[in-house]
């Protein structure tokens, strides 16, 4: 029997029972009885579609693209449903019983995430509409703009935006269009939307009303109605956990069996250092490696895995080759690089995680998961109630932040999700919430996926009863370990005294650090589950470790942002094994086993999320619009307190002109001059010498206008970082060598290293140009992190045409549209390049010549002052 054919049993039993128990047939209970008995699995839909007898239930699909279908109970429609998914769309086929007969209703397919993406893009389109209207009608009061003007501007934008977006705006009501204009105006200073001399056009002030409705980021008037997150079905919950255990087993097996030999290795080192060489190894097109850039391997002779002779670090991993650095244990080593030399992965916590998940699976099968454990609601074994009650403004927190803290403190909420986009004060909210929990008092676990993130939070809590757990003190920053390391007797004594005085206790550790702590296991055994577990940077956490940690507490509070850096992706090998075994996976299941757990809770478990909407980092709203439109449904804006909004019109033009957002494009320069290079000397990697020269020149330019510690250069590639540091090794005239050295080592950074950082000026080098692809630089999460670090000015350096053409999706197309509208795109030719570089020395072997004195930075902001002629 095929998976789809199993539904015939559901239909037959329903028709049989209809006359005697109509209420049961139409109930969720009846569906669950069938599901538990028949255990329907997801399946691939045949190209011819699906039929029940003579009835066509699902139409034939397109010639390309695989469709996966699965059965579910639809709580909103109160009936069974067949869910059909492909890469782009989801379609619901509702299965109802009317007068004892099956009624099949196929709903219109919906694009994945269409509401969020299209709304953000509609606001983006309206931003261009507003710009067009301002240009064509210089004196118009935008709060009273006519719909005819909007429609004319939309027509002129055809070709720049997808046609379906333009058509949807043209077909929408006049009120909807004016409301979108109001959304755009809410991000502008009042005198930007209404000039001193305005024209009364005799139209309703709908845009003005909409602007008041969206009055900006300070008014937390978005209410969340009372709700209850329904439980899932037992079969669906169990299947997810089975898949997670299978995934963990596959990861463990991949680690244990993985052996890489050095047959075909090419030594790229022109003059190898003693005991160190750079190697390039071929990768078969059909190979799947459980590796990522930065993976560290143990090298050993064939058949002798317990006799290591070297270490190998993967520096570059492409589809057809990898490049890495081999370091011999004995520098005098002369062993040949061939198939008799092998490398395997270092030991990881994967075996522990796999065993723990198997135990969790056993507890679920035996119905032994404690009723009070928050895990039940998260997995879907029980429903989760929500009633967001308004609370008081808390100290210096804004209304969005106060609402988030209030929701976390409300014992009614067993699970709370707080999304904190960059610069919105998430860490301040976490600290405030933890201090309030301690006043209650409560026993609290705190975890984050990295030691660095955890230590940053611990530093804010060192005056509290806090213990920092982990397997190694060396992994914890000294200033944190000195005051709260759990293995220190003096720390334990201080913790006990504070605990006795306050009644509260905070225990912090990475997920593995908490799970493997004997003292925490003893604490739970003695005093029961912890009151609360707090997940910081939850967007970077996966399902396995998160679910295991949820077994330790009664409530769970998630703080993070799935739009920023995600967990490490599953190796391709794991997905290939599922496909080879014929396991069709739904989007829900793929996200559950391979994505951000916070993202899964939002999109598939449908937990309400409280969004922090005020960006206190960004003082210049033109810098925030691109990220807000693309990643946050146009809901995040510079805070009302941003300096931009506090300045008068003329001063704002001087302080924040369009040139504070720049894209310096190399597309018009010769390919040989602008292209990237793969470099093997030293640590291998990809660099772009021209972009490094431009960035170095920009650093010298801005160092005359901003303090060095407020200038940052960000690049996706470690090799580009090294080149930049080399080019900037000598300080410009007038800057002390020690100050310059500190800048070079602290303020030239990779994207991953600078997550959470901020700076007045951010210069971005995207590196990729002239190759076959843009690599990972078009990853939306990394782009978001990169473009949300700056407070006042941002300069993007790259081959704009190449990035837009070669990137997957339209992220660079949208970026260029945004910068063209809100900033300046500079296409460099040879003359402009020469003027920009001036006499700067590419290799940094001598100090740059003194430059003309720059205008003094305004005392209030440290911003660059530009002079315009009026």
From TrEMBL:
Domain DNA2/NAM7 helicase-like C-terminal: 607-800
InterPro entries named in the record: Coronavir_polyprotein_1ab, DNA2/NAM7-like_C, DNA2/NAM7_AAA_11, P-loop_NTPase, SF1_C_Upf1
Annotated DNA2/NAM7 helicase helicase domain residues: 397-477
Residues spanning the signal sequence: none
Bias (Low complexity): 847-860
UniProtKB keywords: ATP-binding, Helicase, Hydrolase, Nucleotide-binding
Stated family: Belongs to the DNA2/NAM7 helicase family.
Keyword Ligase found: no
GO molecular function terms attached to this record: 5'-3' DNA helicase activity; ATP binding; hydrolase activity
Domain of life: Bacteria
Gene3D superfamilies reported for this sequence: P-loop containing nucleotide triphosphate hydrolases
Protein name: Uncharacterized protein
Annotated region described as Disordered, given as residue ranges: 841-870
């Amino acid at each position: 029997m095929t998976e789809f054919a199993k539904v015939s049993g559901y239909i037959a039993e329903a028709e049989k029972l209809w006359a005697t128990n109509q209420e049961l047939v139409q109930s969720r209970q009846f569906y669950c009885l069938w599901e538990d008995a028949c255990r329907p699995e997801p399946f691939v839909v045949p190209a011819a579609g699906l039929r029940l007898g003579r009835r066509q239930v699902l139409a034939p699909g397109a010639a390309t693209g695989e469709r996966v279908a699965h059965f579910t109970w639809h709580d909103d429609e109160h009936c069974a449903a067949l869910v059909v998914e492909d890469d782009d769309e989801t379609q619901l086929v509702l299965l109802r019983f009317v007068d004892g007969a099956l009624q099949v209703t196929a709903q219109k397919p919906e694009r994945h995430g269409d509401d969020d993406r299209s709304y953000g893009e509609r606001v983006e389109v309206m931003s261009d509409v507003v710009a067009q209207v301002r240009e064509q009608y210089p004196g118009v009061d935008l709060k009273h703009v006519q719909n005819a003007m909007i429609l004319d501007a939309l027509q002129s934008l055809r070709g720049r935006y997808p046609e379906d977006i333009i058509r949807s705006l043209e077909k929408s009501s006049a009120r909807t269009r004016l409301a979108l204009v109001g959304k755009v105006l809410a991000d502008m200073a009042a005198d930007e939307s209404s000039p001193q001399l305005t024209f009364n056009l005799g139209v309703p002030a709908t845009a003005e009303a909409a602007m008041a409705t969206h009055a900006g980021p300070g008014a937390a008037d978005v209410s969340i109605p009372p709700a209850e997150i329904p439980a899932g079905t037992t079969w669906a919950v169990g299947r997810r956990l089975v898949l997670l255990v299978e995934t963990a087993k596959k990861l463990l097996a991949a680690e244990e069996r993985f052996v890489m030999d050095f047959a075909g290795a090419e030594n790229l080192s022109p003059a190898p250092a003693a005991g160190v060489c750079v190697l390039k190894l071929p990768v078969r097109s059909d190979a799947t490696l459980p590796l990522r850039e930065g993976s560290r391997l143990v090298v050993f002779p064939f058949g002798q895995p317990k006799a290591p002779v070297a270490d190998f670090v993967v520096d570059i991993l492409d589809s057809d080759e990898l490049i890495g650095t081999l370091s011999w244990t004995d520098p005098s080593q002369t062993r040949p690089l061939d198939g008799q030399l092998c490398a395997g992965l270092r030991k990881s916590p994967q075996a522990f995680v796999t065993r723990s998940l198997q135990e969790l699976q056993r507890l679920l099968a035996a119905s032994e998961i404690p009723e009070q454990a928050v895990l039940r609601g998260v997995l879907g074994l029980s429903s989760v109630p929500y009633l967001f009650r308004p609370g008081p403004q808390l100290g210096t927190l804004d209304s969005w932040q106060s609402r988030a803290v209030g929701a976390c403190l409300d014992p009614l909420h067993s699970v709370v999700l707080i999304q904190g986009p960059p610069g919105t004060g998430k860490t301040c909210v976490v600290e405030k919430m933890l201090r309030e929990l301690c006043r209650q008092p409560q026993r609290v676990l705190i975890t984050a996926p990295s030691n660095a993130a955890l230590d940053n939070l611990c530093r804010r809590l060192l005056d509290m009863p806090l213990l920092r757990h982990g397997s190694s003190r060396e992994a914890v920053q000294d200033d944190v370990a000195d005051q709260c390391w759990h293995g220190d007797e003096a720390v334990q004594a201080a913790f006990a005294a504070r605990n006795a005085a306050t009644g509260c206790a905070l225990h912090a550790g990475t997920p593995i650090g908490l799970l493997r702590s004997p003292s925490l296991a003893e604490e739970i055994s003695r005093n029961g589950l912890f009151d609360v577990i707090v997940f910081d940077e939850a967007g970077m956490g996966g399902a396995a470790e998160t679910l295991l940690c949820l077994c330790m507490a009664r409530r769970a509070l998630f703080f993070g942002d799935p739009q920023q850096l995600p967990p490490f992706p599953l190796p391709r090998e794991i997905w290939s094994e599922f496909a080879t075994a014929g396991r069709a996976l739904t989007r829900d299941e793929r996200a559950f086993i391979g994505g951000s757990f916070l993202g899964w809770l939002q999109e598939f478990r449908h937990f309400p999320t409280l969004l922090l909407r005020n960006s206190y980092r960004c003082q210049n709203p033109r810098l925030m619009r691109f990220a807000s439109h693309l990643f946050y449904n146009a809901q995040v804006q510079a805070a009302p307190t941003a300096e931009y909004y506090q300045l008068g019109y003329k001063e704002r033009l001087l302080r924040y002109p369009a040139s504070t957002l720049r894209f310096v494009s190399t597309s018009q320069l010769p390919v040989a001059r602008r292209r990237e290079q793969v470099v093997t000397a030293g640590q291998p990697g990809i660099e772009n010498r021209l972009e490094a020269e431009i960035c170095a020149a920009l650093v010298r330019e801005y160092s005359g206008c901003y303090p060095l510690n407020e200038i940052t250069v960000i690049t996706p590639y470690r090799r580009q970082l090294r080149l930049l540091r080399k080019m900037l090794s000598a300080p410009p005239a007038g800057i002390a060598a020690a100050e310059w050295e500190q800048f070079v080592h602290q303020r030239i950074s990779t994207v991953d290293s600078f997550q959470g950082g901020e700076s007045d000026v951010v210069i971005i080098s995207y590196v990729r140009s002239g190759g076959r692809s843009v690599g990972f630089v078009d990853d939306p999460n990394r782009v978001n992190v990169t473009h949300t670090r700056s407070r006042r000015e941002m300069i993007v350096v790259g081959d704009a045409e190449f990035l837009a053409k070669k990137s997957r999706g339209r992220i660079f197309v949208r970026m260029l549209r945004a910068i063209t509208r809100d900033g300046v795109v500079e296409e460099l030719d040879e003359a402009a390049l020469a003027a920009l570089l001036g006499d700067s020395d590419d290799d940094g072997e001598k100090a740059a010549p003194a430059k003309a004195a720059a205008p003094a930075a305004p005392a209030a902001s440290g911003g660059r002052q530009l002079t315009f002629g009026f």
